[in-house]
Amino acid sequence: MRMIGNWRSAAAFRVRIALNLKGLPFEETFIDLDAGDQHAPGFRAINPQGAVPAFFDGDGPALTQSLAILDYLEETHPEPALLPREPKARARARSLAQAVACDSHPLYVPRVRHYLTDDLGLPREAMQAWLRHWFGTGLATLEARLTGEPGTGRYCQGDAVSHADLCLVSLWVGTAIFGVDTAPYPTVRRIAEDCLSQDAFARAHPTRQPGAPA
Amino acid sequence: MRMIGNWRSAAAFRVRIALNLKGLPFEETFIDLDAGDQHAPGFRAINPQGAVPAFFDGDGPALTQSLAILDYLEETHPEPALLPREPKARARARSLAQAVACDSHPLYVPRVRHYLTDDLGLPREAMQAWLRHWFGTGLATLEARLTGEPGTGRYCQGDAVSHADLCLVSLWVGTAIFGVDTAPYPTVRRIAEDCLSQDAFARAHPTRQPGAPA
């Protein structure tokens, strides 16, 4: 197995955690998103969307979109399971994962930040406010759901790690990068810190990948 | 089965199509997103994220996030299948669905449009440009992937309808609402028109739901 990623990519981080948890060896190549490597013709031929990660399992075209890759790994390497068996619990774990991966993260990726400043001419401070707003909205949604919905346990869904936790952690690590006040999100913090104390998560951490600032 | 939705919601549309294709009877209650019904305490108690659809199958809390609901329906009512069996084909169908549901749609939902105009003070024309840009980016991504990737057939993935087509159609119907030039997206058009000619899709169409303008 092989992946093209980037040290900072939250999406690549999620896949890296799953591979570690399932004990699957993989190689990762890192491209430079700030230099625009994702828009180079060579990479566009791999993923026309120009986004990481691009994942390869043997022959064939790249698999893309982190949640689709997580489901692929779950279906091809079911143990240890990263989704509950019971359908409604499974749906909740996926829903929490999507609250991060669909409704929060896509709002502050590089292409969106560039469009706001370069195309709409938004001042840098307004772009920063945008970023903090949607980042905070993602955290607030998780906190509200984790405290308000039955189903939360040691982890997002019950007492076993699931895709929801991988997404939660991929959001959480941004709080340090973006300097976000984490006080309003104690449940998110509790789960994130629990996960990040585990080797499979810690080894996958963005700051431990090639290309990360020292 | 029961759903709280809105005539215009692309996410509710996707779930409605799946229920029709699987022949599952359901009741849908429609709330008014323009009036802010999704932020009322009663609805927030159902979905703290304040978003539709909220889906109920018997007892228990609502299931949320359209893709999680689609997977739930697939797991609990496998026939007719709306995902291929082969893992890589399945991953590609999911990836195309997520290119719409994660990377395009969340960028122009009401909460984002309101933040741009009400909080960042963006002129209405700039907000419209934003909307057209990300809507067009979603269509362009689909067109590039459908023409460039092996796997495309009569539908997005091979010759059977999958979650990818449900998401493609949920994007496509916005072209009429937003007055978008569809000429650059002939493959998206071909698949969308094929799907929309089928009863299960046609009955689910936003303009045929209560609350839609005449």
UniProtKB/TrEMBL annotation, chains A, B:
EC number: 5.2.1.2
Alphabetized PROSITE patterns for the sequence: GST_CTER, GST_NTER
GST N-terminal domain span: 1-81
Gene3D superfamilies recorded: 1.20.1050.10, Glutaredoxin
SUPFAM superfamilies in the cross-refs: GST C-terminal domain-like, Thioredoxin-like
Domain of life: Bacteria
Domain annotation GST C-terminal: ranges: 86-214
Keyword terms: Isomerase
One GO MF term: maleylacetoacetate isomerase activity
Any Pfam family the entry gives: GST_N_2
InterPro entries linked to this entry: Glutathione-S-Trfase_C-like, Glutathione-S-Trfase_C_sf, Glutathione_S-Trfase, Glutathione_S-Trfase_N, GST_Zeta, Thioredoxin-like_sf
PANTHER family recorded: GLUTATHIONE S-TRANSFERASE YFCF, MALEYLACETOACETATE ISOMERASE
NCBIfam families found in the cross-reference section: maiA
Similarity field: Belongs to the GST superfamily. Zeta family.
Name recorded for this polypeptide: Maleylacetoacetate isomerase
Gene from which the chain derives: maiA
